[in-house]
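Minutes, project check-in
Item: structure for the 376-residue chain
Input as provided by the requester:
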Amino acid sequence: MPNKALTSVAEHTASRRRFIAAAGGTAVVGFPAVVHAQAPVKWRVQTAWPPKTAGSTPFQRYCANVKLLSEGKLEFQPFPAEGIVGTFEMFDAVKDGRLDAMHCFSNYWFSKLPATAFFSSYPLGLDRPDQWETWFYGLGGLELARKAYQGHNMFYVGPIQHDLNLIHSKIPIRSFEDFKGKKIRFPGGMIAEIFSYAGVSTVILPGGEVFGALNTGVLDASDYTGPAVNYDLGFAAVTKYIIMGPATTPCLHQPVDLMDLTVNLGKWNALPKHLQEVVVAATRQHSSDQYAYIQKANIAAWDKYKKDGVQIIRLSEADIQKFRRYAIPMWFKWAKSDPLAREAFTSQLAYMKTFSVGYITDSMLVDVDGKTKLTL
């Protein structure tokens, strides 16, 4: 009587031999074919952070974490600023597929996508990281941002926190009036327009070019990111002043300078749902991690500035009111430039008027003349 167990083994062996023969006739062909089918998805992700700065370290960790959380099924191949394309070319590069994703400052794209003026902080608006988290994750900002980018063949994954922005200056600027006639690097858009009312001639440059422009005198001053990153870029060697607002308003123009991860829409849609969820979760974790890492680095950076003899100048509350006179009408001007910009600002304005925030009252919503009521 035949042994059924041996018969089963023989049938299995014969079946496996037929599979191997069909695959190519060697015993190792079948397994690599399975591995090939599960080869990791690799995305080229470029950041706006220059190499060897406090921002580049958490970006590298973020990319490594995506691979870890996806169990190797998705890899972010990290590229520094200018690594594949110029920083100001990243929007178009993601849109047309030369980059798979970008890790960049949201408001760089105001000329291509006006609503992005309201996807990061703007002068004298919402000025705390938690308020922007609330707007994105509780008040519809995330959905609106995704709708805006989808029209440009991109998927907006989520906001990424890092820091406030500082103004580094070669010459002292002690008041609203002292800004007149100065050449200062700003990110453009609404921010540049508001400072133009103070007589500033604005220049748009990526962060990696700021040191050279300050060193050669092309610029009198420059905004960029926070203390640690700017120290890493050498700003203390070419400027002797940091211009800030009073303690109540330490940053006039971008108190919460948000970055984001934005992905080519075709690449995003091709990614399995569970890996999309990994990217979303990893990005939100990275936002928290990057913020904490940079804030810690800032503590040490302030001591370095002091040691190097850099002077911190704080403007007055009266200067803040002078900027606010021009800032609020500019909010409305930019909100009217695009339906999605209007939608974003409308919800942010309502939030700023709530008792828990209390930044804005109806009596403040007037034009530069102090009389004409501003409306959307």
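Outcome recorded: DSSP finds 14 helices and eleven strands in the chain.
No further action items on this chain.
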